Amino acid sequence: MVAHNLLPAIPRPTTDLTLRVHAKDTVADGVVSLTLVHPDGTRLPDWTPGAHIDLLLPDGTTRQYSLCGDRWDPYSYRVAVLREPAGRGGSAYVHDRLGIGDAVGVGGTHNHFPLVPADRYLFVAGGIGITPLLPMIHQVELIGIDWQLLYGGRTRASMAFREQLKDTYGGRVHLCPQDEYGLLDLETWLSRPEPGTKVYCCGPAPLLAAVQDACAAWPPYSLRTERFTAATPEPARQTPFEVELRRTGRTVTVTPDVSVLHAVRRAGADVLSSCEQGTCGTCLVPVLAGTPDHRDAVLAEHERAAGDCLLPCVSRSHSDRLVLDL
Ligand code: FES
Predict the structure, then answer these.
(1) Ligand 1 mean position to 198 CA, how many Å?
(2) Disulfide: which of 47, 91, 286, 314 matches 295 by Cβ 3.0-4.6 Å?
(3) Atom 4 (ligand 1): residue with closest C-alpha?
(4) Could you give the 3-state DSSP secondary structure of residue 23?
(5) What confidence category does residue 4 fall into, taking pLDDT thresholds of 50, 70 and 90?
(6) CB-based pocket (< 6 A), ligand 1
(7) Which atom in ligand 1 lies closest to the alpha carbon of residue 281?
(8) What atom in ligand 1 is closest to the CA of residue 230?
(9) Ligand 1: distance of its center to the CA of 275 in Å?
(10) pLDDT of 244-291, one tens digit each?
(11) Strand 146-153 relative to strand 173-177: parallel, antiparallel, unpaired?
């Protein structure tokens, strides 16, 4: 309790909109979709495939969900929520308590998983990881670019939108429930690099790691991923380091038991956060000097390599000193 009192108040994520639940549908075992509309029926901000919103639930929790509806429908947002028994309660609230007509705060949209131009696309989805890929598939189909989807899940019944995908796109969609086919056959799909093809993958951490390994010989930046949770390798250093807040004119020492985010807040910097798990991108800050130890699930490889920003809720430092534009 005392320790909590030492921390500055954590800024709440901004709520740009209050929307109402217009429809709630079961789309697979353990997955419901929510259709959200403005209470006045007015149009909603535009978004692009790969984007997500922050959902601020009536119980005070905030969660990020990929938009999986039709981006050309300006009057509604659609998200799909997997019930996560081991989660922090957000999905249980959506499944058990959120009803049609309820109000929810919505922040965003944000897009850390944008669709970049390519000659061809291979989409690889694991379970609920299908959600950000749905609008991408719709988009590439509209502009007539070649694509394939490799979609795995525990069982056929657990795979959201499988029938819609199969009915709409037929042979481009390869459904591979694990209880029928085993793990996705990445060897067959990815062992031969295909210049010009971008691989977009979203799903659980083991799938992302396997796809990353399988794409090791592909041209740089061929693979784009989005994670549900940040990979949490051991920090590069177990010793304290200094963080200079250049604009604030203060320097703080970050010990191993404190996040950079909380350390800079204690020093007076007002940094917004939401997930505090390295998955939403809200807390992104520019880095002016030093070498970040990236531990988030948001930045792409080339953004990590550039070293000019970091997500302080989970990321740390390789160097003795980091200088932030705060
Ligand atoms: Fe979500 Fe830092 S608060 S990435």
Answers:
(1) 26
(2) 314
(3) 278
(4) strand
(5) very low
(6) 273-276, 278-283, 296, 298, 311, 313
(7) 4
(8) 4
(9) 5
(10) 999 999 999 999 999 999 999 999 998 988 888 888 888 999 999 999
(11) parallel
Q: Three-state secondary structure along 172-232?
A: HEEEEEHHHHCCCCHHHHHCCCCCCEEEEEEECHHHHHHHHHHCCCCCCCCEEEEECCCCC
State the distance from the centre of ligand 1 to the C-alpha of 234, rounded, in angstroms. 18
Give the model confidence (pLDDT) of 124-143 as tens digits. 999 999 999 999 999 999 99
The one-letter amino acid at 312: P
Beta-bridge partners for 190: none
The minimum-distance atom of ligand 1 relative to the CA of 298 is 4
**What letter does residue 13 receive in the DSSP assignment?**
P
Q: What is the pTM of this model?
A: 0.79
Which residue segments constitute the domains of the chain, with CATH numbers given?
17-110 (2.40.30.10), 120-227 (3.40.50.80), 241-324 (3.10.20.30)
Residues making up the chain, counted from first to last: 326
DSSP strand pairing (17-28 vs 103-110)? antiparallel
Q: Is the peptide bond before 188 cis (omega within 30 degrees of 0)?
A: no
For range 199-218, the mean pLDDT? 93
Q: Which atom of ligand 1 is nearest to the CA of 312?
A: 2
Query: Which tokens belong to 126?
Result: 């694991």
